[in-house]
Design brief:
Helix content: 40-55%
Order of helices and strands: EEHHEEHEHEHEHEEH
CATH class: Alpha Beta
GO molecular function, one term: medium-chain fatty acid-CoA ligase activity
Mean pLDDT: 88
Radius of gyration: 19 Å
Distance between the termini: 44 Å
EC number: 6.2.1.2
Keywords: ATP-binding, Fatty acid metabolism, Ligase, Lipid metabolism, Nucleotide-binding
Largest sheet: 5 strands, parallel
InterPro entries: AMP-dep_synth/lig_dom, ANL_N_sf, Mitochondrial_ACSM
Number of strands: 9
Low-confidence stretches: 1-5
Catalytic activity: a medium-chain fatty acid + ATP + CoA = a medium-chain fatty acyl-CoA + AMP + diphosphate
Shape: globular
CATH architecture: 3-Layer(aba) Sandwich
Strand content: 15-25%
């Protein structure tokens, strides 16, 4: 028997599989444009709001200290719209521009991922173990216009800024502040 996802009997594994099989066989049209944030996230939020889909967390993050962040589809959608506005209006990024994010796996990492999808901005994730040399390479190769990191990794970015001619803005995640950096959490 097919297994259910989040105890929702309407979303069966076999139904998902058959849907993708019908696409691959040409029985369903692929949309010309697809945006996960608006086509999936916002649609699920609407279905929950209308009572046609049971409420389930869209995002549930727990760290090793037991702290957790749990967001509904509506909350994640609203936050991702705010983050997309920060990237496009405050940072001046446009569709196709690139953002490098070097962060540990904190909730803002996923939020930025969805915000970039929503705004058509290319998201370049980087492990938090990158050295200054690694960061410079990624900045030059990607021609990123924005860099996002936390206070612990910001000095490595600052040490290579002279080698990055495309970078327009720097976003800091967390409660700290640094000269020349915008604080993402405050802007949200």
């Amino acid at each position: 028997p097919p297994r259910t996802f989040h105890r929702n009997n309407r979303l069966l594994t076999s139904q998902i599989t058959s849907y993708y099989e019908s696409i691959s066989q040409g029985k369903k049209e692929l949309p010309e444009y697809f945006n996960f944030a608006s086509d999936v996230l916002d649609e699920w939020a609407r279905l929950e709001k209308d009572g046609r889909k049971p409420a389930n967390p869209a995002f549930w993050w727990v760290n090793d200290k037991g702290e957790e962040v749990k967001l509904s589809f509506e909350e994640l959608g609203a936050l991702s719209r705010k983050a997309a506005n920060v990237l496009s209006k405050v940072c001046g990024l446009q569709r196709g521009d690139r953002v490098v994010a070097v962060l540990p796996r904190v909730p803002e990492w996923w939020l930025l991922n969805v915000a970039c999808m929503r705004a058509g901005i290319v998201f370049f994730p980087g492990t938090s173990q990158l050295t200054a040399k690694d960061i410079l390479y990624r900045l030059q190769a990607s021609k990123a216009k924005c860099f996002v990191t936390d206070d612990e990794r910001a000095p490595a970015v600052e040490s290579v800024l002279a080698g990055s001619q495309f970078l327009k803005s720097k976003l800091l995640v967390g409660k700290g502040s640094r000269d020349g950096w915008l604080n993402l959490n405050e802007l949200l």
